[in-house]
Amino acid sequence: MLIREFSKSIRESKKRVAFLTETVALGDQQAEVISSMTSFQVRRVFGDLNLREDSTEEWKKIKEDFHVFVLTPTNLHILLTHSVFFMVDLCLLVFDECHHTLKSHPYSSIMKDFYKRNQNVAALPKVFGMTAVVPGLEYKQLKNSNNIDEQLRVAIAQLEESMNCKMLTASLKHLKVVNEPKAIVFTFPPAKALLELNWDMFEDYKYKLEPLYREIGLWGICLFLKIKLKTLETSAEPSSSLIDNIQKFILQIEEKENRKID
Predict the structure, then answer these.
(1) pLDDT (0 to 100) of residue 187
(2) Which of 137, 170, 195, 262 has the fewest CB atoms within 10 Å distance of its CB?
(3) Shortest CA distance to 14 belongs to which of 90, 86, 128?
(4) Per its record, what are the GO molecular function terms (predicted)?
(5) Which of these, 228, 254, 224, 259, lies nearest to 243 by C-alpha position?
(6) CB-count exposure of residue 138 (10 Å: 0-12, 13-18, 19+)
(7) At a CB cut-off of 8 Å and minimum separation 6, what does 163 contact?
(8) 90-133 pLDDT, tens per residue?
(9) Any residues with CB less than 8 A from the CB of 257 and at least 6 apart, and which?
(10) Are 207 and 201 in contact (CB under 8 A)?
């Protein structure tokens, strides 16, 4: 993981990492991954910051206690604007979905107002941006274009300028290849098969749902049955014995897995 490469700056120089995400949900996911894969203390910074006159001292303590800050770009912009955070406090600045720097967006403001205007170039953090989007271009435009190479070069150059970075990507010929998604259809077994179902015969029954079992195991089959159960419960003529049988079977799976499956 890239963040580990900055361990010396984080531990010895007391520099920090800022990881920017567009949404709270993505931020939570990234924070969990960073926490599980490193020994650094991770702080989530979402929602209203409620900055006060004494916030500088409060955040000084927070910056001492935490190494990695996962936050929305708006919140980092606010912290920088109020001089609670400074660019030189960071050793690494990560942008998720970095193509937004080409728009009227907090990403763009962070780079223009706080990164590029900073005269202490040697103390500025390294910048790492991630995106799967060709900035300013849609796939249909590229697919139907006769000068795809030139359009991509222009778009990439603009992103490099806005991020003050060098872009690394797949070769241009690989960008033209789009893999079709793999579709798997699961057919629910007839009611009679479920009425006869019990835990002892599950080894035989599982092969009727072999693709599902192979992909996601017992809990996947349990989830599949729960979805079907909701359909049966709202049907015009639900079979109480069938519903009871499915409910018992779900309970058996959950007990075997030793967890509740939602």
Answers:
(1) 56
(2) 262
(3) 90
(4) ATP binding; nucleic acid binding
(5) 228
(6) exposed
(7) 95, 98, 101, 111, 127, 129
(8) 999 999 988 888 888 899 999 999 998 887 888 899 999 988 77
(9) 218, 219, 222
(10) no
In order of 55, 72, 215, 234, the CA distances from 58 in angstroms are 5, 20, 48, 54
pLDDT at position 204, please? Answer: 46
**Tokens at 207, concatenated:** 């092969």
Distances (CA, A) of 142 to 21, 46, 131, 153, 176: 27, 36, 17, 12, 8
Q: What mean pLDDT, rounded, does the chain reach?
A: 76
Burial 222-239 (b: 16+ CB within 10 A, else e): bbbbeebbeebeeeeeee
Q: What is the pLDDT of residue 261?
A: 47
For residue 14 the two structure tokens come to: 């007391």
Write down the pLDDT at residue 160: 86
CB 42 within 8 A of CB 18: no
Q: Is 130 exposed, middle or buried (0-12, 13-18, 19+ CB in 10 A)?
A: exposed
Is 93 exposed, middle or buried (CB count within 10 Å of its CB: 0-12, 13-18, 19+)? Answer: buried
Interval 84-89 mean pLDDT: 92
Q: What is the CA radius of gyration of the chain?
A: 26
State residue 99 phi and psi, 5-degree precision.
-65, -15
Nearest by Cα to 129 from 103, 91, 164, 155:
164
Q: Which residues pair with 94 in a beta bridge?
A: 19, 128
